[in-house]
Structure formats: C-alpha cells, structure tokens
C-alpha cells in the first residue's frame, strides 16, 4: 500500500464529517477527501435548519460528537454563551454550527495540513480502479482512492402510493420535507403524509411561516412521537440480557416500565438494542418491524418539552389534526389544488377532501431498491452492493464493510450511519453513530495500513 493512502468519504453530514475527523486524528499521514453534494457542507439533512422550533430530540449532554469527550457539545454551547444545560434540548441549527466548527477547526489545524480536501461534488459512480476505487463525480472529474466510506445518510422519503407523476411534478406537492420553502406554498389547508418526527418538523415550519393555517396529518395508525419528561434517573435500570427474543424483550420492557415508567424502560434498553437486533433471525427482525416498529419509533424518538408543548397547543386549537387511515386517491385539480379521498382506519367508506398542498413527511426511506440516487443505483447495478434483508439500507458485515451481490465483503469499501441500519437497527442518532464513526475509521485505516 502507498505510504500516504487516500480515503474518500462520500457524504458530509454528521456520519461523514466525524468519520473524516477520526481518520485525520488516527490515520498517520492518511489523506482524506470528503465529498458533499449539498451546500453548506457539514450539516446533512438533520442540521440544515435555522428554525429555532427545530430542536434536537436528544439532550445536549448526550450529543457530543466524540465518543471519548462526553462534555464537548455542552462546553461548546457554554463557549457560545448559549444557556442550554446538559439536560436541555438545543436547537438543531446550533448543533449544525457545532459540527461545522469541528470541521473548520480540523481544516485549520495541523492534523489536516495537506491531508484533508473537502470537495463539493456529488459522487455518481464507483468501480474498482487503481489501487482501490475510482469514484465518478457529477462534474465528470474522477477521484482515485485506496478506500471509500459511504456516509450517504437519510434519503428523502419515497413517493407514497397515490401520488402520480402529474401530482409529483406539481408545485402543490413537496417531495423532500427537509428542503422546501414553507413560504412558497399557496394559502389554505395542507395535508401531511406521515405523523412522526418529520411531520412535527413540517407542521412547526408551516405554523411559523403562516400562523393559523389548517394542517391535517395522516398515517395508518395516527401515532405521534411522545414527549421527553423530567431528567433521566441517576441510576437507570440494568439493560436486559442481550439474547432475548422480540417477545421476551417486550416482556422485559413491560416489567421494567411497571416499576420505572416507560421512558426509563425504553432508554434502559438502548445499550442492548444493537446486540439484541443482531441476535435475531431475519424472520424475527421482520416480525418486530411489522408489529412493533410504529410503537417503538414513537416511544424511542421523543420530542423535547418545548416542541411537545407547541404541538399540544396546535392540536388543542385544532390547527393540527392527526388522523389514522389511508389515502385512496390524490390528484391535482385544474385550479392547482389537490383533491383526494382517505379511508379512516377500521372504516369502509372513503371521505373526500380538498387541500392546497400535500407534503410527503413519511420520513427517510431505507429501501435502496426504490432509490433514485445515481450512486446507489450504480452500486446495485454493478453488484457492488445489495439491500439488507429487511430493506432498511445497504447490507454490511459486522465491520461495516459493504457486502456485494454475492454476500462477499469488500475489503476497502465501508458504510457508516443510518445507511447501515439493517445491520444495527439503532444507528440513527448521534449517540450511536459517533461510536460507529470511530470504529469505521479504525477499520478503514487497518484496511489501507
Ligand atoms: C430531520 C432530522 C432530525 C434529526 N434530529 C436528530 C437529533 O435531534 N438528534 C440525533 O441524535 N439525531 C437526529 N437525527 C438523526 C440523524 O440521522 C443523525 O443525527 C445524523 O445527522 C445522520 O447523519 P448522516 O451524515 O448519516 O446523514 P445525513 O445528515 O443525511 O447526511 C448525509 C449527507 O450525504 C450527502 N450525500 C449523499 N449521497 C451523496 C453523494 N452521492 N455524493 C455526495 N454527497 C452525498 C447528502 O447530501 C448529505 O449531506 C435527525 C435526522 C433527521 C432527518
């Protein structure tokens, strides 16, 4: 291997930035090319917001970007003169500034001198080449690297059933709930597809841009995220044994919740979740996703008290209505509005409605077989990658190396972050990804060393 290997990191959201910083910190001389298609770099889907209503859903004390420096984010907040304690919920915009600051410090510091290139390119193709990989960028410029880390993150939601080509192309439809302008929507009621965290973000953005607008949110069960309450206990209960079946894990949750409350019980499960998941067969994982996922999601990924109180207020005043049911029809009308029909859960008859816009807030889609992303399509087409059996992302081995179509692990092609969800399940939030980013950096350096 060359004395100064080149490592390409594709994607500069939290996962890519932190993997790149670990590579610089630990890689003796290794050069890193960090590629990002969106500007500004370093924010990803989660932290590219200036809206103060968009809060972190994890307490500041648990949001350090570094696994070995737990107080780093709270120290940064203090340094900025922001009065956010370890038990509080900072804004996601501030978290984005923190991340960009880490990247800027690294770029300016001695560790990165001549070793880090941040390249504003979209990677659209990847193939074996040179001493490792040849990356094709949308600008046409190829990049050679000895190893590649895919930090592709949270793809926008898939187009839901009922949204045809004509509606998808119309200004009355918002396809990407993380990149849109609430002020650009026509006046009138808005239908949000989905009732999870993405819906909450979108509803708050709509209310901030045009207070008083009527918002209807619809999902099959109509479940909405629960609220964080109080401080976590000083001595949380011990996590369960890591070889429980989904059923036994549920029983453990119920027993623990009866003593400590459900929030503490769900949080106590966290250190064991990845091991539990890895120990389950594909059939057990599929059963969990089918029966428990909607409930898991709303109890596990909770709202800060500030956001929960605004949402409660919107719902009380009926400006936000949440419904359980299914869309049976959606179409753009000649006047630009959208008409359709939905069937309430458990009922036979569909109800008509007319709204001025529809926003797809169903949350990130992990199913790479439905992806329209050029790089993902290229990886699948070449057989360099395959979907994991649960269709949550790309299939990886326990070292986060990509598995090709035959199930063989590529020695120098890695993935990090939510795109590895099929392998780990709990790999969506900072407290999980920060450790994975460090592990992936070590594994990459081992592969090129
Ligand atoms: C709206 C939202 C809010 C969230 N809030 C929290 C929170 O409060 N706390 C928490 O812990 N977690 C939160 N999360 C979870 C989130 O998954 C992680 O915190 C983290 O941001 C994930 O980072 P990522 O880099 O893996 O993904 P992303 O943030 O999605 O970043 C991936 C990046 O890769 C780039 N990219 C993709 N493909 C290419 C390509 N081919 N070429 C070049 N660039 C490419 C994209 O443009 C993007 O910038 C939130 C997620 C979302 C979506």
Short description:
The protein is of the alpha/beta class. It has helices at 14-26, 44-47, 72-79, 92-108, 165-168, 197-209, 246-260, 262-279, 282-291, 293-300, 305-316, 374-381, 421-424, 430-448, and strands at 6-10, 31-35, 116-119, 123-129, 132-137, 142-145, 147-150, 173-174, 190-193, 215-219, 320-332, 338-344, 351-355, 357-360, 401-403, 409-415. Bound molecules: flavin-adenine dinucleotide (FAD).
Textual characterization of the structure:
The protein is of the alpha/beta class and 449 residues long. The termini are close together. Strands 8-14-9-10-11-12-13 form a seven-stranded mixed beta sheet. It has helices spanning 14-26, 44-47, 72-79, 92-108, 165-168, 197-209, 246-260, 262-279, 282-291, 293-300, 305-316, 374-381, 421-424, 430-448, and strands at 6-10, 31-35, 116-119, 123-129, 132-137, 142-145, 147-150, 173-174, 190-193, 215-219, 320-332, 338-344, 351-355, 357-360, 401-403, 409-415. It folds into three domains: 6-155 and 366-448, FAD/NAD(P)-binding domain (3-Layer(bba) Sandwich), CATH 3.50.50.60; 165-226 and 302-360, 3-Layer(bba) Sandwich (FAD/NAD(P)-binding domain); 246-300, no CATH class. The mean pLDDT is 93. The structure holds flavin-adenine dinucleotide. Flavin-adenine dinucleotide (FAD) is lined by residues 10-16, 35-38, 44-46, 56-58, 92, 122-123, 151-154, 178, 201, 364, 375, 417-418, 428-430, 433.
């Amino acid at each position: 291997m060359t004395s100064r290997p080149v490592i390409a990191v594709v994607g500069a959201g939290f996962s890519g930035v932190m993997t790149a910083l670990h590579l610089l910190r630990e890689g003796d001389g290794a050069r890193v090319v960090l590629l990002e298609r969106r500007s500004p770099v370093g924010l990803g889907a989660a932290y590219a917001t200036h809206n103060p209503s968009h809060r972190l859903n994890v307490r500041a004390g648990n949001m350090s970007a570094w696994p070995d420096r737990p107080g780093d984010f709270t120290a940064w907040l203090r340094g900025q003169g922001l009065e956010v304690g370890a038990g509080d919920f900072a804004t996601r915009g501030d978290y984005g500034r923190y991340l960009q600051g880490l990247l800027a410090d690294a770029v300016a510091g001695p560790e990165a001198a001549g070793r880090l290139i941040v390249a504003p390119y979209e990677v659209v193709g990847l193939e074996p080449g040179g001493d490792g990989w040849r990356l094709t960028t949308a600008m046409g410029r190829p990049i050679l690297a000895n190893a590649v880390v895919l930090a592709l993150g949270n793809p926008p939601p898939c187009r839901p059933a009922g949204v045809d080509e004509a509606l998808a192309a119309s200004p009355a439809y918002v396809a990407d709930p993380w990149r849109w302008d609430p002020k650009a929507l026509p006046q009138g009621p808005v239908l949000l597809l989905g009732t999870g965290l993405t819906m909450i973000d979108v509803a708050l953005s709509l209310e901030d841009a045009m207070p008083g607008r009527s918002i209807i949110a619809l999902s099959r069960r109509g479940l909405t995220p629960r609220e964080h309450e109080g401080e976590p206990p000083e001595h949380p209960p011990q996590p369960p044994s890591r070889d429980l079946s989904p059923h036994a894990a549920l029983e453990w949750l119920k027993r623990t919740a009866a003593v400590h409350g459900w929030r503490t019980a769900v949080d106590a499960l966290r250190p064991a979740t990845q091991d539990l998941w890895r120990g389950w067969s594909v059939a057990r994982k599929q059963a969990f996703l089918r029966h428990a996922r909607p409930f898991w999601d709303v109890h596990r990924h909770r709202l800060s008290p500030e956001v929960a109180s605004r949402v409660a207020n919107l719902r009380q005043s009926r400006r936000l209505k949440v419904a359980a049911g299914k869309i049976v029809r959606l179409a753009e009308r000649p006047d630009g509005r959208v008409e359709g029909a939905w069937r309430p859960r458990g009922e036979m008859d569909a109800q008509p409605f007319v709204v001025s816009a529809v926003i797809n807030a169903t949350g990130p889609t992990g199913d790479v077989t439905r992806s329209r992303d050029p790089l993902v399509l290229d990886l699948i087409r070449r057989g360099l990658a395959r979907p994991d059996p649960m269709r949550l992302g790309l299939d990886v081995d326990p070292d986060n190396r990509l598995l090709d179509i035959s199930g063989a692990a590529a020695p120098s092609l890695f993935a990090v972050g939510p795109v590895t969800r099929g392998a780990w399940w709990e790999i969506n939030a900072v407290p999980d990804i920060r450790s994975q980013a460090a592990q992936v950096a070590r594994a990459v350096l081992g592969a090129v060393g």
